[in-house]
Amino acid sequence: MNNLLDRIYAEPHAEVSGFAFDDAVARVFPDMIRRSVPGYTTIIPMIGIIASQYAQPHTELYDLGCSLGASTLAMRHGVDQPGCRIVGVDNSDAMLERCRKYIDADSSSVPVDLLLDDIRSVPVANASVVTLNFTLQFIPLEDRLALLSQIADGLNPGGVLILSEKLVFEDGEQSVLEELHYDFKRANGYSDLEISQKRTALEDYLVPETLGQHRERLLAAGFSRVVLWYQCFNFCSLLAIK
Predict the structure, then answer these.
(1) Where are the domains positioned within the chain?
(2) CA distance 95 to 21
(3) 0.90 exceeded by the pTM?
(4) Which residues of the chain have pLDDT under 50?
(5) According to the annotation, is 199 in a ligand binding site?
(6) Residue 90 marked in a binding site
(7) Phi/psi of residue 114, nearest 5 degrees
(8) Judging by DSSP bridges, how do beta strands 60-64 and 127-133 pair with one another?
(9) In 3-state terms, what secondary structure has residue 30?
(10) Which is the CATH superfamily of the domain at 40-168+206-241?
(11) Of the residues 150, 157, 168, 198, which has the fewest C-beta atoms closer than 10 A?
(12) Can you tell me the distance from the alpha carbon of 84 to that of 210, in angstroms, rounded to the nearest whole number?
């Protein structure tokens, strides 16, 4: 599939609408996320390595908020245990339509089921690996603990959740890391107009939290240990172990 250049916010908008994972975003999503999220191109292949270590025989692996299936494919190629199946879930039909094409074109024989649904409504069961890759930040704050508890309950002992998120900081680190993030975007060709308009579109929709808030909630949800395995500027990925 052709990956188009993200120019959604390249021209001035009279009114910036709230961000949506619609067809326009789905068409340019590989370019958008690569140029917007520091470390994304490192996190994805590492998800495959984590899956290779923690996947258990005859279990399910879930990619909740799978978008175009990058994490799904990473897990699919990392799994070397028999009888595993991957379940990808997203509430955007535009994303899943393109995800199916990537899955169909892939050479791995590990079964993948794709579901159009709200991840809060999908039961997790007999799971060894679950991925929330920059997904929880779009879930309302009041629903996050229930979702993580549901995941923890559905994980087998020794199973893991890979949680990647944008962070906020409670002290002077915030302004430093936020400006470095904007510099990262500028270095990848985004203009100040694009940065500003997208920030407006995401306001009140993408709600980040501190690293401490994530740790506390994961432990409250039933995970025994939380490991920060990656951070680049104000983006991180955590490994929560059941």
Answers:
(1) 40-168+206-241
(2) 7
(3) yes
(4) none
(5) yes
(6) yes
(7) -110, 130
(8) parallel
(9) helix
(10) Vaccinia Virus protein VP39 (3.40.50.150)
(11) 157
(12) 34
